[in-house]
Write a structure and sequence with these properties.
By secondary structure, the protein is mainly alpha-helical. 72% of the residues lie in helices and 0% in strands.
Length: 509
């Protein structure tokens, strides 16, 4: 059930009306019913895995909480037992994800390595499995570290894991911020409803006008890069538009849907194409994944005994300043390797993760050298030109990483990189058909896409400068605000390349 389909709109309207009609103390039950109904409509067998993750992490959290709560118990002994429980819980939770997502990848590599002929497994990959696995694992770790008390009501916890707006592509939520909201009583708010609908509309615009039009050309260019070798650079730019419009647009829709029910989900984007470094980019792109990795992988790894011993040795060999950076750099590489694996089962994703991790580690290690070079060149700290240079540099670095998504082999990737630098024939794009009207409509379609990008850039630039767009709109007369939304609502189906949005790229994760 696509979130831009008529069936989802009907599902949402019925759920919304029911939510505010029932007594407020039952609202959370309506949300739980809606969440499981949504998941059952999408895939009945997948509900088994959702329940498995819920039961495992709920049970292990109660077990850990019980160990900590025993009066007179030896604290060290309780911590030791809890450590074994947390290991068991994480193995069971992530084990399910590993089997479903990576089994066939392992089989393919074993076949290639040993020239065997093992058959691939017929496994389903449930919708949102990475998101609810990470959310539930984070909850379990928070209970172990005593940041959160274990939830005793199974159905309250089941709602946190299954809450349907986060299922398609996140964000990855924390129990201490979302769990309480889900079971609170909410009263109808016209302001909240209006802002939720505006957020949904903006997300659909980014998806159906920007992402889906860009995808029309990206699909053709990278399906035959030899023929369209003069468009590789343009194709890369269009893919950047597609990826951002698709993912951030979907997140906007989901945050808007949650807001209709009075629920505030975590923000997941902070204008990443304005980032001034790759590390800054990852603080802005898929923010909840980055924060999850930082809190549950980066910090524990950096502060581990093994890293502490390594740090001491490096300080002796390299000096205090450089030596303390080595554990941080290694942790960054490991984190981004895991991020790459999270994105998909393939060597391309592993290479992509290492690419990002190595660049960030290199930047951290030589940060003092870069600062000295900047000072030697007499570049002002607040130079506008230098800021623009850093933004463009970061964008180019991310574009290079995107080649992994656009090719199925390393040699082909290198060839496309060469074409991007040596061949440029922008008029080739006029050969690509744009919907039912064919190539005759291509200039119009490109104009629509360009206008959409300009609008997105203008809004993003204003937000980057501190303007709160939706708060500003809410201060305008209601007819004006309604008129702007109506124009956008009319333009989306009129100028979109198709009647219903394509599938979302990040839904596969």
């Amino acid at each position: 059930m696509q979130i831009t389909s008529n069936s989802f709109i009907l599902f949402l309207v019925i759920g919304y009306l029911l939510y505010y009609i029932v007594p407020s103390k039952w609202q959370w039950i309506v949300l739980l019913g809606l969440s499981y109904a949504y998941y059952l409509i999408v895939s009945v067998p997948a509900v088994v895995f959702l329940l498995y993750s819920t039961v495992v992490t709920y049970g292990c959290a109660l077990w850990i909480g019980g160990l900590y709560a025993k009066e007179g118990a030896d604290r060290n002994a309780s911590r030791g037992k809890a450590r074994r429980v947390i290991v068991l819980g994480l193995l069971l939770d992530f084990g399910m994800l590993a089997v479903l997502k990576y089994s066939n990848f392992m089989i393919l590599n074993l076949n290639a390595l040993f020239r065997s002929h093992l058959s691939l497994l017929q496994l389903i990959l449930p919708l949102g499995i990475s998101y609810y696995t990470f959310s539930s694992a984070g909850y379990l770790l928070d209970v172990y570290w005593e940041r959160t008390k274990p939830e005793t009501n199974f159905f309250h916890y089941a709602l946190f894991v299954s809450f349907f707006p986060q299922m398609l592509q996140g964000p990855i939520n924390r129990y201490h911020s979302l769990g309480v909201q889900l079971t609170q009583e909410h009263v109808f708010s016209l302001h909240s409803t209006k802002q939720g609908l505006e957020r949904i509309l903006w997300g659909v615009f980014k998806k159906m006008i920007l992402a889906d039009w860009a995808a029309v050309y990206v699909d053709v260019i990278f399906a035959d890069p030899e023929h369209y070798s003069g468009l590789i650079l343009i194709g890369q730019l269009l893919y950047a538009v597609q990826l951002y419009g698709d993912f951030s647009g979907g997140i906007d829709v989901m945050i808007g849907v949650a807001q209709l029910f009075g629920i505030t989900l975590e923000e997941n984007f902070n204008r990443p194409y304005f980032a001034i470094s790759l590390a800054d980019f990852w603080r802005r792109w898929h923010m909840t994944l980055g924060l999850w990795m930082k809190d549950y992988v980066m910090y524990p790894l950096t502060l581990s005994k093994a890293m502490s011993r390594l740090g001491k040795k490096c300080k002796k060999a390299l000096g205090r300043k450089k030596g303390r950076l080595i554990p941080i750099c290694i942790s960054n590489i490991i984190v981004f390797l895991l991020v790459g694996i999270w994105h998909g089962a393939g060597w391309g994703f592993i290479i992509w993760g290492l690419y990002n991790g190595l660049i960030i580690a290199f930047s951290n290690y030589f940060a003092d050298r870069f600062a000295a070079a900047k000072k030697a060149l007499h570049i002002p700290e607040k130079s506008a030109l230098w800021h623009i240079f850093m933004v463009v540099r970061t964008f180019v670095i991310t574009m290079i990483g995107n080649y992994v998504d656009l090719t199925d082999s390393f040699s082909r990737m290198l060839r496309m990189m060469r074409y991007a630098l040596t061949r440029f024939a922008p008029t080739q794009i006029l050969e690509i058909s744009s919907g039912k009207l064919g190539t005759a409509y291509t200039p119009v379609a490109l104009g629509i896409l360009a206008a959409g990008c300009i609008l997105l850039f203008a809004v993003s630039l204003a937000q980057e400068r501190g303007v709160r767009i939706r708060d500003t709109l809410s201060k305008w007369p209601l007819p004006v605000e309604f008129g702007l939304c109506l124009v956008l609502l009319i333009c989306i189906p009129m100028f979109s390349p198709m009647a219903m949005a394509r599938g979302f790229i990040y839904a596969q994760f």
